[in-house]
Amino acid sequence: MERRKFVQVCCYSAIGLPILATVLQSCGSIYYAVSTRNANGLIVAKSEFWKVEKNKKVNRPFVLIKTEDNKFPICIYKIEKDKYVASLLKCTHKSCELNVGGGIYSCPCHGSEFSITGKVLEGPADRDLETFKIGTDNENIYIYLS
Description:
Blueprint: H1 3-28, E1 35-37, E2 41-45, E3 50-53, E4 56-59, E5 62-65, E6 74-80, E7 83-88, E8 99-101, E9 104-106, E10 113-115, E11 120-122, E12 131-136, E13 140-144
Antiparallel strand pairs: 1-2, 2-13, 3-4, 5-6, 6-7, 7-12, 8-9, 9-10, 10-11, 12-13
């Protein structure tokens, strides 16, 4: 192999492997929770945030909800013990569906990034994500859609 080709392959590998690892890691953690609908919005059981790994109960940092009303999923992030935030995964720049992972939402179309609370971190988007009011009780999370 000639030197130029070798350097090129090494550069592509150095760039591609971390990106591939990130994508595969984030894909493995995507979970669509079961939700029910009521007059005010959606209800999700808090138990949807738990999973069992190697005989241990582990907390998911977020779950996604797909609704019939919307083309885009809603992501519920658990911020602390009984505090959650729900955001529509629709980029405010050109309406692309956002990716979730690494503690941010990222737009695969034009590179906008948002915090888990829906705030713009990096453009070209200039508006925060649509977020929903949330209520909780001992067993459920209530997402108020109206």
